[in-house]
């Protein structure tokens, strides 16, 4: 029998994740990203951190601690 140990890596366990509510948060690994959107025929710009779910993951994961 072959025993395999797996490690869970999820956003809610990452040092760069900032929880907003129980299920989602901001990824603060990199600088905020600029987004453009149209409001009443006028284009507006904001900078935002990407929003992820707590169970999401990526290759930049670093465990808290």
Secondary structure topology:
Blueprint: E1 17-19, E2 24-27, E3 33-39, E4 42-48, E5 51-53
Antiparallel strand pairs: 1-2, 2-5, 3-4
Plain-language structure description:
With 65 residues, the chain is mainly β. It has one domain (1-65). The protein is 0% helix and 37% strand. The chain is built from no helices and 5 strands. It has strands at residues 17-19, 24-27, 33-39, 42-48, 51-53. The strands form 2 sheets. A 3-stranded antiparallel beta sheet has the order 1-2-5, with no helix packed on it. A hairpin with a 4-residue loop joins β1 (17-19) and β2 (24-27). It is elongated, with a radius of gyration of 16 Å. The termini are far apart. The model has no long low-confidence stretch (mean pLDDT 90).
Short structural summary:
By secondary structure, the chain is mainly beta. It has strands spanning 17-19, 24-27, 33-39, 42-48, 51-53. The chain has a three-stranded antiparallel beta sheet, with no helix packed on it. Strands 3-4 form a two-stranded antiparallel ribbon.
């Amino acid at each position: 029998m072959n025993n395999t140990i797996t490690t869970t890596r999820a956003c809610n366990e990452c040092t760069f994740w900032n929880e907003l509510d129980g299920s989602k948060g901001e990824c603060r690994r990199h600088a905020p990203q600029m987004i453009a959107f149209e409001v009443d025929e006028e284009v507006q710009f904001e900078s935002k951190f990407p929003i992820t779910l707590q169970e999401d993951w990526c290759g930049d994961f670093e465990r808290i601690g």
